[in-house]
From TrEMBL, chain A:
Pfam families registered for this protein in UniProt: ORC3_ins, ORC3_N, WHD_ORC
Record-annotated Origin recognition complex subunit 3 insertion domain positions: 355-582
Function: Component of the origin recognition complex (ORC) that binds origins of replication. DNA-binding is ATP-dependent. The specific DNA sequences that define origins of replication have not been identified yet. ORC is required to assemble the pre-replication complex necessary to initiate DNA replication. Binds histone H3 and H4 trimethylation marks H3K9me3, H3K27me3 and H4K20me3.
Name of the protein in its database record: Origin recognition complex subunit 3
Automatic annotation (TrEMBL), chain B:
Transmembrane segments: none
Function: Component of the origin recognition complex (ORC) that binds origins of replication. DNA-binding is ATP-dependent. The specific DNA sequences that define origins of replication have not been identified yet. ORC is required to assemble the pre-replication complex necessary to initiate DNA replication.
Ranges of residues in domain ORC5 lid: 213-280
Protein name per Swiss-Prot or TrEMBL: Origin recognition complex subunit 5
A GO MF term: DNA replication origin binding
Organism per entry: Phoxinus phoxinus (Eurasian minnow)
C-alpha cells in the first residue's frame, strides 16, 4: 500500500502512472552505454526504443483497466451494498457474518499485482480510506497479520493528523490487537466525515454514510497458512459490531479452495460471494490486438518469436505480464543489436532517418537478405545503381519504407477480415485465435497450405445469412482502415452485401439447408464433413442457383485479397528493420535452464572460458581444467555414496598426470597439502552448487545428489 | 418458568430476570450460582465448563456476570497470541488501563503475579473477581506453565479471584501434568429438540404472533435437526427463511392457522437451503436476494460449482505426473512408463498390503526426481528442464495443488504429495487428451 501512487483527482477512473524517476536514472545509464557504439545512432535508437516501451506500458495498463472494470465495479458495488446492509433492523442480526468477496484471478500470479493496485486505488477513491492488503509471506502468524493490519491502517491515520502521533505511537508500543484497532477506528471515524470532502461527494446519493468499512485484501489466499486465517477470522468476527470488516480473498485456483482451507465453523462466519475476473487468454488477446496486430506500432515480431513468447505463455505461466516483459526484451535486443533499427519508428521520422543514413548503414542495408532479393528483381542498370550509389540506396530505402508501412496498413484489416470469416467455421481450420492466423500468414504463403484449402472449401458452403453477417463484420473492420485500397475493398464488400440481400427469398430454402449441415457438422469429425462436402459439390454441378454463383464470387474475391495482401512479411524488402527474429536468443534468455548451463560449464569448461588449452576429447579429464571441473567429472563416475579418500586419490592422479614427465616416480601418486587443500575447496564448491552433500550414513563419505549428466 | 433462585447476597429481581433470560439452563444456572456463593465469599479457585458448540457456555456465564454486575475479565484465548496480551486484558479489566501499562514489554507470569498482588493490595477485592477464559483449549498452545498457574491463581496472588475456563474439549485432553490443581468440572449438555424449539421461539418476529413463529421453528427443526444442532446456525437459518415462510400470509393466500399450507410452501425451500446456504455454498446475502427476486430456478452457482481451474499446459502434465507418482507404487513405474516393459501382470506386482486401493490410503510422498521422470515420459513433446518447469512446480505448491512434505532440507531432493482429487485430475487430463486411468495402478 505504501508504494501505491496516489492521484490528486477527485473523480474515479483509470489513471496511468509513469515509472518513477529512480528508474529513469538507471535507464539513462543504459542509454549512455548504447551511445558508445560510435556512429550507429545509438542514442536515437535508445530514444525510439524508450518511447515505444512507454507506449507499450501505457497500452497494457489501459487494457488491463478496461478489462478489469467490470469486476472491480461489481466489487465496489458489493462493498457498498454491505455497507448499507448493516441495517438497524434489530431482528435480523446477520451482522456477525463478515462480507467476503472471493476474487477469482486465475493462476497467472504475476499479473495479480496490477489488478490489486487498481482495486486499491478504486476502493480508496470511492469507498473507504481503510484498505489494507496483505501477502501470505509477511503473515506467517496471526500476530504478524494483525501487526500488518494495524501498521497499514494506523500509520495512515498518523499522516492525516499530526497531533495524534504520540497517541498512536503509544498504542503501537503496548498493544497489537484488534481491540486497539477498534479504539483507533472510533476516534478516527468520529472526525472523518469532515476530513475527506471527496468521499462526501461520492456518497451524496446515499443519504447518510453509515460507516467506513475496513477492507482487508488477502492477495494470495492459497498461500496463507490455514490456521492463521482461521484464527484471524475468528478474532475479527468478535468485533464485527464495532469494526465493519470486509474481506477480499484473491484466489488463483477455484472458490472451493476456501472450503478446503476453512472448516465449516469458520466459513460460517463469512458471507462469501464470488467474483470472476477476466481470463488471462482473453487478456493476452487484447494485448496482442493492441500491440502486435497494430500498424501504428512499428516494432514487429517474426513468427518464430511470437511462437516462443506465446509458447511460454501457454505452456508455462499464463502471465500476460511476462509476455509483455518478453516483448520488452525483444525490443531491447532488436534496438541494441540491429543498427538499422533506427528506421523502426513512425513513418515520418523513419523517412528522415533514411535520408541521413550513414555510409556504414547503407552498406548494412545492401547486405540485408530482403534487400538483396529486391535488388535481384530489378533491371540490370538499376541493380548497378543500387550497388554503387549511396544516394540512390537512400532514395530507394525511403520508397521501400513507405511500401512497408503501406503493407502493414493493408495487412491488418485483411487479416482481421479473414479471421472473422474463418472463425465461423467448425474446428477452426486456420486457428481459433487471430494470432495463429497471423503467425501462419507472416511465415509462409498462406494460400499454399492445406488448412487454407479446407477453410476455403468450408466457406464455400456457408449459408446465406452467415455469409452476410460475416461480410458485414468485415465491412465494419474495413471502415476503420484509412488507406485508399482498403476503402476500395470496403466498397466491393458492401456491393457484395447488397447483391446478396437482393437475392432475398429466391434461394432461402437451399441456403438454409446448407446451414443446417454445417451446424450439424460442428460436432462430427472433419472427414465426414468432407464427404458431405463432396456430395454437395456433385449435386451443385447439376443445378446452380444464383446464390451459389454469388457465393463463389465472394470467395474468389476473398481469395484474391488474401493473395494480394497477406504475403509473408519476410518477403517485404527492409522487413529486417522492423521485425525481430532471433527466436533462439529469446528462448535461451527467457526460458533458461540453469542446470544444463552449470553442467556444460563443469564438463566442458572450454565452452565458457574459450581457452585453447581446455579443449579436450570427450571422456578424458584434462589436468589443465579448473579443479572444480576435475572433481565434478570424477564424481560422475561414482555411485550414490562417494568415498572421499578414493576421490582425493583420483584427483591427485589427474593433477599429477601433467607433472609425470619431470617428477620422480616415487613422488608420483603422493599428495602434498596444497593439493589436498585444493581438493577440499573444490569439493565444497561442488557442495555449494548442490551436487553433493555430507551424509551421516557412512563416515568419510558424501552423498551424490544428481544423476545423469556428463 | 420462574424458578425461584435462592442466592443470598444478590438482588432478587435480577436473579428472576436472569432465570427468564436463560431458558433451559436453569440447573446450570443454579449450580453455578451456588458455587459462586455470596459475592464477598471466596469461591472455588478454578472452574472448567465444557460442552459442544453453541450450548450457551459463554452466553450463560457472561450473562450472569453482566446482570449481577460482578467484577470480571473476559478474555478470548484466540486473541491472545501471547501470554502478555492475556495479562494485559485481565489487569486492565480489574485495575484499569493504567495498571496494565505498568507491565513490562514481554511480561512473564511472575511479572503478572507481582503486579496483580501489588494492585490488589491497594484495592483488595470486595467481591469475588472472575477471570473468564473463553476457548480455553488454545491455552494448550501457549506457555506450558500458564495453565497450571492460572488454575491456582487464587493461591498465588492471595486474592478473592476465580478462573472460569470455557471449552469444547473435555478436561482429560487438557490436564497439563500430574500434580496440577484440578478445577471443578461442569458440563453443559447439548440441547434437546424441545429445548431448541423453546429457545429459538424466544426471538419471534415483532409483527407476527409467537405461536406462528413457534410453529415455523418446529418445521425448521423438522428439516434441519438431523443435520445440525448448532443453535447459532439454526437461528441464522430461521432468520434467513422466515420471510419466505410468511410469503403466503403477506399475499393473503393463507391464514396463520393454515399451518399445512405454510408447511407445503416452506418445506422444499428449506431443503434447498440445506444444500446451499447451510453449507455456505451460497452466501446468505445472495440467498435473501434470490428470495426477493422470487426466481425459483437455481441460477446461483455454489462455490464448489466453480471447481474448474485453467492451468498452463506443462503445469497440467506436472500435476498429472504428480498424481501418478502419488498413487502408483514406485515399483510399477517401469510397467507404466517403459516402452517395452514386457508382460508384467498386476498379480506379479501385488504385495500383500497393496491389495487395498491406493486411493483409499491417500497420496504418498514422492521425490522430485521421480516426478520429473514421470513428467518427461507422459508429456508428448521434448521439454527442456528449464527454470520455468521448476518454478511451475513451486507455484503448484503455493496454489496448494501439490504439497511439500518434510520442510527441513529443501536442497536435497524435496518430497511432494499431490493434493488434488481423482475427479480433478480426470478433468485436467481430459483437456490435454491424456488417458490418466490407463496409467493408474488401481484401475489396472
Ligand atoms: N439457553 C439459551 N437461551 C438463549 N440463548 C442461548 C441459550 N444458549 C445459547 N444461546 C445463544 O446461542 C448462541 C451461542 O451460545 P454461546 O456463544 O454461549 O455458545 P458456546 O457454548 O460459548 O459456544 P462456543 O463453544 O462455540 O463458544 C449465543 O448467541 C446465545 O445467545
Ligand atoms: Mg463461547
Amino acid at each position: 500500500m505504501s508504494e501505491t501512487p496516489v492521484t490528486s483527482s477527485v473523480s474515479k477512473g483509470c489513471f496511468v502512472f509513469k515509472s518513477t524517476s529512480k528508474k529513469r536514472k538507471r535507464h539513462v545509464g543504459v542509454g549512455g552505454y548504447l551511445v558508445d557504439g560510435s556512429d550507429d545512432n545509438g542514442s536515437d535508437r535508445f530514444r525510439i526504443c524508450q518511447k515505444l516501451w512507454e507506449t507499450v506500458q501505457m497500452n497494457t495498463e489501459v487494457i488491463q483497466d478496461q478489462l478489469n472494470k467490470h469486476v472491480l465495479d461489481s466489487l465496489v458495488e458489493f462493498i457498498k451494498k454491505h455497507d448499507l446492509g448493516n441495517s438497524p433492523d434489530v431482528w435480523r442480526q446477520r451482522s456477525s457474518e463478515i462480507p467476503t468477496a472471493a476474487l477469482m484471478l486465475g493462476v497467472n500470479v504475476p499479473d495479480h499485482a496490477m489488478t490489486f493496485r487498481s482495486l486499491c486505488n478504486l476502493l480508496q477513491d470511492s469507498v473507504t480510506p481503510f484498505v489494507v492488503s496483505v501477502h501470505a509471506k509477511e503473515c506467517a502468524a496471526v500476530k504478524l497479520l494483525i501487526h500488518k493490519l494495524l501498521e497499514q491502517l494506523m500509520g495512515k491515520g498518523v499522516s492525516v493528523d499530526e497531533e495524534q502521533e504520540d497517541e498512536t505511537a503509544l498504542l503501537q508500543r503496548t498493544q497489537c490487537t484488534i481491540s486497539a484497532l477498534c479504539q483507533w477506528y472510533k476516534t478516527v471515524t468520529k472526525k472523518c466525515p469532515q476530513v475527506s470532502p471527496q468521499r462526501k461527494a461520492n456518497l451524496k446519493n446515499n443519504d447518510l454514510p453509515r460507516s467506513l468499512p475496513v477492507v482487508v485484501i488477502f492477495k494470495d489466499f492459497e498461500a496463507f497458512n490455514s490456521q492463521v486465517l482461521q484464527d484471524f477470522i475468528l478474532i475479527c468476527s468478535r468485533y464485527t459490531q464495532e469494526l465493519p470488516f470486509i474481506f477480499i480473498f484473491g484466489i488463483a485456483t477455484s472458490p472451493s479452495a476456501i472450503q478446503h482451507r476453512l472448516p465449516h465453523s469458520v466459513s460460517s462466519l463469512l458471507c462469501i460471494e464470488v467474483f470472476q475476473s477476466l481470463s488471462c487468454t482473453q487478456h493476452l488477446a487484447s494485448v496482442f490486438d493492441k500491440l502486435i496486430l497494430n500498424s501504428q506500432f512499428p516494432f514487429k515480431l517474426s513468427s518464430r518469436v511470437i511462437q516462443v513468447l506465446v509458447g511460454i505463455f501457454l505452456y508455462h505461466d499464463f502471465s500476460v505480464q511476462n509476455f509483455v516483459k518478453g516483448l520488452q526484451f525483444s525490443m531491447l535486443e532488436h534496438f541494441n543489436g540491429q543498427p538499422l533499427s533506427v528506421l523502426c519508428c513512425q513513418k515520418k521520422e523513419a523517412l528522415l532517418f533514411a535520408k541521413t543514413l550513414s555510409q556504414k548503414n547503407v552498406e548494412r542495408i545492401r547486405h540485408l537478405p530482403s534487400f538483396m532479393r529486391y535488388v535481384e528483381t530489378q533491371e540490370p542498370q538499376e541493380q548497378v545503381q543500387l550497388l554503387t550509389s549511396d544516394e540512390h540506396v537512400k532514395d530507394t530505402c525511403q520508397k521501400l519504407l513507405k511500401n512497408l508501412h503501406k503493407y502493414h496498413k493493408n495487412y491488418y484489416p485483411i487479416l482481421q477480415c479473414l479471421h472473422s470469416l474463418t472463425s465461423l467455421l467448425p474446428k477452426f481450420p486456420l486457428g481459433k485465435h487471430i494470432r495463429e492466423l497471423h503467425v501462419s500468414c507472416i511465415e509462409k504463403n498462406l494460400w499454399e497450405t492445406e488448412e487454407y484449402d479446407s477453410a476455403m472449401q468450408l466457406l464455400r458452403i456457408l449459408a446465406k445469412d452467415e455469409l452476410v453477417a460475416a461480410l458485414e463484420k468485415c465491412a465494419e473492420i474495413l471502415k476503420s482502415a484509412k488507406t485508399k485500397r482498403m476503402q476500395n475493398v470496403l466498397q466491393q464488400v458492401e456491393d457484395f452485401i447488397g447483391r446478396l440481400e437482393a437475392l432475398e427469398g429466391v434461394t432461402s430454402e437451399e441456403s438454409t439447408g446448407d446451414g443446417v449441415i454445417l451446424e450439424k457438422n460442428r460436432r462430427t469429425d472433419l472427414f465426414q464433413l468432407q464427404k458431405t462436402l463432396l456430395e454437395k459439390e456433385s449435386r451443385r454441378t447439376k443445378r446452380v442457383n444464383p446464390y451459389e454463383v454469388l457465393r463463389s464470387q465472394v470467395i474468389e474475391f476473398i481469395d484474391s485479397l488474401v493473395r494480394e495482401y497477406l504475403t509473408p512479411a519476410e518477403l517485404q524488402p527492409l522487413s529486417e528493420v522492423c521485425y525481430y527474429s532471433s527466436s533462439a536468443v529469446l528462448r535461451q534468455r527467457l526460458n533458461v535452464s540453469p542446470r544444463t548451463s552449470i553442467q556444460t560449464a563443469l564438463s566442458h569448461p572450454f565452452h565458457y572460458l574459450q581457452n585453447e588449452s581446455l579443449k579436450t576429447n570427450a571422456g578424458t579429464i584434462s589436468s589443465a581444467a579448473p579443479d572444480l571441473c576435475i572433481v565434478y567429472k570424477l564424481h560422475l563416475e561414482c555411485g550414490r555414496l562417494i568415498n572421499l579418500y578414493d576421490w582425493l586419490e583420483a584427483f591427485v592422479t589427474v593433477m599429477s598426470a601433467a607433472e609425470d614427465q619431470d617428477a620422480d616416480s616415487e613422488e608420483k601418486g603422493k599428495f602434498d597439502s596444497l593439493k589436498h587443500a585444493r581438493f577440499i575447496q573444490a569439493v565444497s564448491e561442488l557442495e555449494f552448487l548442490g551436487f553433493v552433500k555430507s551424509t551421516k550414513q557412512k563416515t568419510d563419505h558424501v552423498a551424490r545428489l544428481t544423476w545423469g549428466g556428463c | 418458568m420462574s424458578v425461584t433462585l435462592q442466592c443470598p447476597g444478590y438482588p432478587e429481581d435480577t436473579l428472576r430476570s436472569l432465570a427468564d433470560r436463560l431458558p433451559c439452563r436453569e440447573t446450570q444456572l443454579t449450580s453455578l450460582l451456588s458455587l459462586m456463593g455470596q459475592p464477598d465469599q471466596y469461591s472455588y479457585p478454578s472452574v472448567f465448563i465444557y460442552g459442544h458448540r453453541a450450548t450457551g457456555k459463554s452466553h450463560v456465564v457472561l450473562t450472569i456476570m453482566k446482570d449481577l454486575e460482578l467484577p470480571h475479565a473476559s478474555v478470548d484465548c484466540v486473541e491472545c497470541v501471547s501470554g502478555g496480551l492475556l495479562f494485559h486484558q485481565v489487569l486492565s479489566a480489574f485495575f484499569g488501563p493504567d495498571a496494565a501499562a505498568l507491565l513490562p514489554r514481554c511480561p512473564s507470569l511472575s511479572d503478572f503475579v507481582r503486579l496483580y498482588k501489588q494492585m490488589s493490595s491497594s484495592t483488595p477485592a470486595t467481591q469475588t473477581r472472575y477471570i473468564i477464559l473463553d476457548r480455553a483449549e488454545r491455552m494448550r498452545d501457549m506457555d506450558f506453565s500458564l495453565l497450571p498457574a492460572l488454575l491456582r491463581l487464587q493461591e498465588l496472588v492471595n486474592d478473592n479471584v476465580t478462573v472460569i475456563l470455557l471449552s469444547e474439549i473435555v478436561w482429560e485432553k487438557f490436564r497439563p501434568n500430574t500434580g496440577c490443581f484440578e478445577p471443578l468440572l461442569f458440563h453443559f449438555p447439548d440441547y434437546s429438540k424441545a429445548e431448541l424449539v423453546q429457545i429459538l421461539s424466544w426471538d419471534h418476529h415483532p409483527s407476527y404472533t409467537p405461536e406462528l413463529y413457534a410453529s415455523y421453528i418446529n418445521i425448521l427443526l423438522g428439516v434441519f435437526f438431523s443435520v445440525c444442532r448448532d443453535l447459532r446456525e439454526l437461528r441464522h437459518l430461521a432468520v434467513l427463511n422466515f420471510s419466505k415462510f410468511c410469503e403466503p400470509l403477506e399475499k393473503g393466500e393463507a391464514k396463520e392457522s393454515d399451518i399445512h399450507k405454510l408447511w407445503k410452501n416452506i418445506e422444499p425451500h428449506l431443503h434447498r437451503a440445506m444444500q446451499t446456504v447451510y453449507l455456505r455454498e451460497v452466501s446468505s446475502m445472495q440467498w435473501e436476494q434470490q428470495q426477493m427476486d422470487e426466481k425459483e430456478a437455481t441460477t446461483l452457482r455454489g462455490l464448489s460449482a466453480h471447481a474448474h481451474i485453467e492451468l498452463p499446459y506443462y503445469s497440467k502434465f506436472l500435476l498429472i505426473a504428480a498424481y501418478l507418482a502419488s498413487f502408483n507404487p514406485a515399483r510399477t513405474d517401469r510397467r507404466f512408463f517403459l516402452k517395452n516393459h514386457g508382460k508384467i501382470r498386476k498379480t506379479n506386482f501385488l504385495k500383500k498390503h497393496e491389495k487395498t486401493s491406493n486411493h483409499l490410503l491417500g497420496p504418498k510422498p514422492f521425490p522430485l526426481d521421480r516426478l520429473l521422470a514421470i513428467f518427461y515420459s507422459v508429456v508428448d513433446s521434448r521439454v527442456a528442464p528449464t527454470a520455468s518447469v521448476f518454478s511451475q512446480i513451486s507455484s503448484l505448491v503455493t496454489l496448494q495443488l501439490l504439497s511439500q512434505v518434510g520442510h527441513d532440507d529443501q536442497l536435497d531432493s524435496p518430497k511432494y504429495k499431490c493434493a488434488v482429487s481423482l475427479d480433478f485430475i480426470l478433468a485436467i487430463s481430459r483437456t490435454v487428451s491424456f488417458d490418466v486411468v490407463r496409467y493408474l495402478y488401481d484401475f489396472l
